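Postdoc handover notes: sequence design on the structure in folder B. Input tokens:
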């Protein structure tokens, strides 16, 4: 009953490893450490360093650890990079997912959970978007993920494994116990960058476009706390293990915040003002992306626990501070005082 977490040394995967461990599950991580970090894998969790496309390594890992389920996070994630290097993205996200899936079938794996993305919807015409909306990705990244969803659907039908393809909206925040967080120095995500600006690690933050058809002219996104997201995966795994049907489900909160609202939250929670500059639109950014969340609630019984923008921002800020302390050799931050989370005012 061991769960293989691919990409378990990365941002979201490391939170899934924590959620599985906290639930008492046996876990093994497969990660090539291309954007991941060995120290995000907790002590006692085996880390197999290697490529998900390496069929022999995956077969040996599945057999050696008695793997019955795979949670597949490993991949390349930067949308503009996928436009510059589509073949690299199709290789890492699609071709290698195919190899992993083939090894899963050969190894008798029963359940497969896959990190999909709101990018499969492209430029949606409705907001919130539910899972029945047309999929029309506008980037190779989104297309590479949608093709993997299709491979999963067809492979599950042919070989009897069950799967969940979870379409994440904007993942942010960090483990409230300060054990993991977004650690990649060249990360491009708004809340991470704003937290760095607040802590003086970058001189300013840019707003990419203020002329969108939204109330304040900036893009709206549905920010989901990474620890809630990990819990949704755990529910999906339990659902499949209990004999539940395969599913495709959005992961978000069903509520969006604009770039300006996010910046205001980071300034409010940190108590620090930082320079904000106007910049041109970033190509390929839809004006608004908000998840329809009926399905994940109804199918998995998912109920958010950390769905306040200020909570997400507070945890992101604390993780940046934690990274700085590690760099400086200072004592780590104490785990989050949960009463502070409960007391955090709702933003908006
Ligand atoms: N971060 C988001 O907001 C977001 C949104 C939607 C979907 N996703 C998806 O979630 C997944 C995890 O994203 P993340 O933000 O944690 O990114 P990340 O870069 O922190 O994690 C990816 C991990 O996969 C590993 N990896 C990459 N290619 C590999 C390979 N070929 N073999 C073995 N290991 C490999 C990396 O070393 C890294 O540890 C990705 O599949 C991504 O597409 C992320
Ligand atoms: O310095 C910045 C960074 C971002 N933004 C804006 O903030 C919003 C959020 O941007 P992120 O880069 O944080 O996230 P994205 O919405 O672009 O991307 C996320 O959602 C995508 C789905 O559409 C993919 O899944 C991707 O992996 C995931 O990070 C966008 O409007 C972006 O233009 C800024 O204004 N300034």
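Designed sequence:
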């Amino acid at each position: 009953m061991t769960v293989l977490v691919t990409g378990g040394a990365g941002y979201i995967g490391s939170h899934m490893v924590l959620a599985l461990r906290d639930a008492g599950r046996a876990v093994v991580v497969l990660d090539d450490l291309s954007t991941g970090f060995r120290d995000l894998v907790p002590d006692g969790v085996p880390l197999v360093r290697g490529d998900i496309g390496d069929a022999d390594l995956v077969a040996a890992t599945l057999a050696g650890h008695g793997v019955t389920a795979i949670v597949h996070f490993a991949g390349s994630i930067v949308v503009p990079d996928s436009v510059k290097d589509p073949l690299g993205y199709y290789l890492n996200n699609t071709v290698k997912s195919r190899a992993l899936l083939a090894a899963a079938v050969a190894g008798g794996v029963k359940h497969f959970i896959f990190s999909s993305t709101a990018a499969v919807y492209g430029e949606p015409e409705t907001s919130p978007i539910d899972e029945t909306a047309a999929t029309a990705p506008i980037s190779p990244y989104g297309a590479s993920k949608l093709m993997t969803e299709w491979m999963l659907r067809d492979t599950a039908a042919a070989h009897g494994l069950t799967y969940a393809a979870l379409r994440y909206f904007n993942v942010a925040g960090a483990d409230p116990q300060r054990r993991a967080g977004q650690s990649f120095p060249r990360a491009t995500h708004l809340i991470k960058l704003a937290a760095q600006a607040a802590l003086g690690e970058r001189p300013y933050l840019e707003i990419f476009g203020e002329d969108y058809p939204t109330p304040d002219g900036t893009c709206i996104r549905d920010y989901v706390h990474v620890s809630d997201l990990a819990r949704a995966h755990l529910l999906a795994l339990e659902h499949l293990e209990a004999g539940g049907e395969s599913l495709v489900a959005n992961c978000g909160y069903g509520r969006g915040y604009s770039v300006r609202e996010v910046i205001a939250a980071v300034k409010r929670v940190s108590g620090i003002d930082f320079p904000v500059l106007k910049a041109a639109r970033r190509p390929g950014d839809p004006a608004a992306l908000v998840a329809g969340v009926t399905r994940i609630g109804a199918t998995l019984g998912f109920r958010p626990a950390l769905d306040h923008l200020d909570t997400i921002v507070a945890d992101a800020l604390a993780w940046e501070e934690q990274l700085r302390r590690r760099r400086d050799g200072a004592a780590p931050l104490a785990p989050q005082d949960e009463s502070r989370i409960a007391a955090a005012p709702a933003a908006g």
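Context for whoever picks this up: The chain has eleven helices and 14 strands. Don't rerun without checking with the PI first.
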